[in-house]
Amino acid sequence: MIKAGIIGSTGYAGGELVRLLKQRDDVQIVWYGSKSYVDQPYAGIYQNMYEIADDICKDDNMTELAEAADVVFMATPQGLCASLVSEEILSKTKIIDLSADFRIKDVAVYEEWYKLKHASPQFIGEAVYGLSEINRDQIAGARLVANPGCYPTCSTLSVYPLAKEGLIDVDTLIIDAKSGVSGAGRGAKVDNLFCEVNENCKAYGVASHRHTPEIEEQIGYAAGQKVTLNFTPHLIPMNRGILITAYAKLLKDISYEEMKAVYDNYYSGEKFVRVLPKDVCPQTRWVEGSNYVDVNFKIDKRTGRVIMMGAMDNLVKGAAGQAVQNMNLMFGLKEDAGLGQVPMFP
After folding, report:
1. For 151-314, CATH number?
2. Are strands 305-312 and 242-250 parallel, antiparallel or unpaired?
3. Residue 117, number of CB atoms within 10 A of its CB
4. The whole model's pTM is what?
């Protein structure tokens, strides 16, 4: 039995972690951390957990939590995990951090984009970037995993095979992204009110979104060179889901069959990445509530470009599901354990 603690259990990603873990017989949640709701019943905050999670919310006492849990999920804003992690904590428990504190290897880049002084840069080198399909072996032996961001997960998995094989000019890469409102978190913000979001679509974080350097770093590893790209996210009026459309110049003339073989070579053995048939575009509705990522591509012979597409649930594969996938690897379990949920429709 794995004993799990969640700090930030009352946010959207934390709530999704609870939903996924409560369906398992081999995991016990021993700590529902929530600084805003200390001493309140968890099911009073999320009524879907009535008679399922009867526990009371606790604070973020990492010292006490490390003694009680085999693994701690940090579903918190940037800065908190870095302020709480220490060698003593890591000697007692494993940490899966859903914030950006340990995703970016250059501390100066992190501090520039997140406007925070990193509280524990000594652990950045040790932290493993938790994109299971790419870093599976390193994750298995890690005690600190940096769970990828939602946009970077979908972007990287959509683009990775072609960047890795040197088929695209990564200097021409442009990524257009769209996300449901849950990606902004559960905190009250005017921009996320129903009247602001409904019947509307808008770009935000233009040329400044904090996931940009994370995407650049991961695509750079694949391409073997420094990458600078345009990334523009958009907010759309739905609860959950991410759609990525990426564009890049091709470096060689290539047929559909040849490019399909490249994607299949990378993903045919991957449970959660589905390469769709020819001319079938990924849609968020076909991955909702699941840990799947649907990807596909379209070669535009007229412009000499390729259009790469991906769709996933931002709260599952983009956050909690991927965190559980990483936990499974860290504890030597089947990677897909507890993640067999079929996408929901309608």
Report:
1. 3.30.360.10
2. antiparallel
3. 11
4. 0.96
Helix, strand, coil % in the chain, rounded to nearest 5:
35, 20, 40
Return the SS3 of 239.
Answer: coil
Angle formed by the axes of helices 256-267 and 150-164, nearest 10°: 120
Which residue among the candidates 81, 150, 154, 201 is catalytic per the annotation? Answer: 150
In the chain, domain spans? 2-126, 151-314
Establish whether 150 is a catalytic residue.
Answer: yes
Is 155:244 a contact under the CB 8 Å cutoff? yes
Task: Classify strands 230-235 and 168-179 as parallel, antiparallel or unpaired.
Answer: parallel
Architecture of domain 2-126: 3-Layer(aba) Sandwich (3.40)
pLDDT tens string 295-328: 999 999 999 999 999 999 999 999 999 999 999 9
pLDDT digits 0-9 by tens, 139-174: 999 999 999 999 999 999 999 999 999 999 999 999
